[in-house]
Amino acid sequence: MATFDFLLQGLLVAAQPMNLLYALIGVTLGTAVGVLPGIGPALTVALLLPVTYRLDPGGSLIMFAGIYYGGMYGGSTTSILLNTPGESSSIVTALEGNKMARAGRGGPALATAAIGSFVAGLIATLALAFIAPYIVKLALVFGPREYFALMVLAFVTVSSAFGDSTLRGLTSLFVGLTLACIGIDQLTGQTRLSFGVPDLLDGIEVTTLAVAMFAIGETLYIAAQGDRGPDKVEAVKGSVWMSAMDWARSWKPWLRGTVIGFPIGAMPAGGAEIGTFLSYAAEKRLTKHPEEFGNGAIEGVAGPEAANNASAAGTLVPLLTLGLPTTATAAIMLAGFQQYGLQPGPLLFATNPQLVWGLIASLLIANFMLLVLNLPLIGLWVKLLTIPKPWLYAGILLFATLGTIGANPSVFELGMLLAFGLLGYVMRVFGYPIAPVVVGLILGPLAEQQLRRALSISQGDFTVLFTSPIAAVLLVIAALALIVPLILRARGRGQVLAQLAASED
User: Fold this and answer.
1) Are strands 183-184 and 191-192 parallel, antiparallel or unpaired?
2) In which domain, by residue range, is 248 found?
3) Would you list the DSSP string of 73-130?
4) Domains in the chain: how many in total?
5) Rg, C-alpha atoms of the chain
6) What is the pTM of this model?
7) Which sign, positive or negative, has the C-alpha torsion 177, 163, 46, 123?
8) Tens of pLDDT along 42-96?
């Protein structure tokens, strides 16, 4: 019953005119960003971090969450009409959605994606509201040992989940952890890795790093690709509305996608891509029209899109209750919380319940806004695909620079922006994921603080980390998360080599 009360209070906060405006700006920006290929919600939130520095924390975070939800919605438009997923989580939607568009059924494909996203987002947000308090109660028993073990698990799973190589993910994380050591030691007050530069005494600004790695690095990477010719946009033919048969074939995949996507998004090693692939596989197995899969089956759009949006709500469970990001956008949102001196976790529910429940309730309102924006304005979103890339990315570069100057008017900070932007470009070229760098910079100081507290309490005895059952289990899970993908990849490589050897014989 208390959850209902908190949710009602949150709705009162979210329904304030300024917060409604922030939510509308967020979902509109998010949808526009999701439609544009190559520009994800993480990049947009990163760009807005310095701009929102002096704004109301609650309103800014509501806007960031709206961008996240809107980006998940908008990605389906690009996948269906352009066969170019804006986000990795929209890859599966392109398989059947683009075939439907080519067959003149782009309208129903976009409609089932939008309505499925609405249904999944609504159910998953309510699940977030009811599950979060229980996780908070569990997290309140955590001490320094348990928090350190939890962050080790976050480091390993984030490194494994992003990119194709665990080693590259860990390398990116190591870069982030190294950057986190720059500045004044929190416990001793000694300077570390500042090389006598006064500007480095306060450490590396998370907003500068995030904007540089996601926005500047991405812009340089796209510019280096050159002009590859315009992509062909499939026109939306006929009515956008779904027929009775489309409704009958879509509602079960929407529910199944929600059930699959939410828990996977909430897991530390989750991510929307896994849920969408599992949903697609489930629909392919359960369909009464197997001959349509691969030729434009509406279930192949409805299920994965529902799983995609349910996982977005699921991602907010570990972020809000434990302070652990499981996606790139969640990592940038964590930086947004810290920008206002807030640390997501169980204590935030106790110290600032208005903000947390206002944020959760705003997601319900954002879902309704997105449905209204997506169905009638599909023609407008399609026109966004015609913006020339040079204009688009030049605008991003300008906005990133002006935002950084506005937040921290310093020549040194602009130099850092350029340096980290070049680093982001190099990492993209060589296939190193960027999100672990940001996660390492954000969570590195917290992990170090908890470890040193645990060691201080035990007078330097490292075995104290394993005497707590919760910490021991978390560390074992972290070890398995690191080792199992390596074994599976090695086994896959072995099978490929065996097949090559057999074919040569």
Assistant:
1) antiparallel
2) 1-501
3) HHHHHHHHHHS--SSGGGHHHHHHHHHHHHTT-HHHHHHHHHHHHHHHHHHHHHHHHH
4) 1
5) 23
6) 0.70
7) negative
8) 777 777 777 676 777 888 888 888 887 887 777 777 777 766 665 656 667 777 8
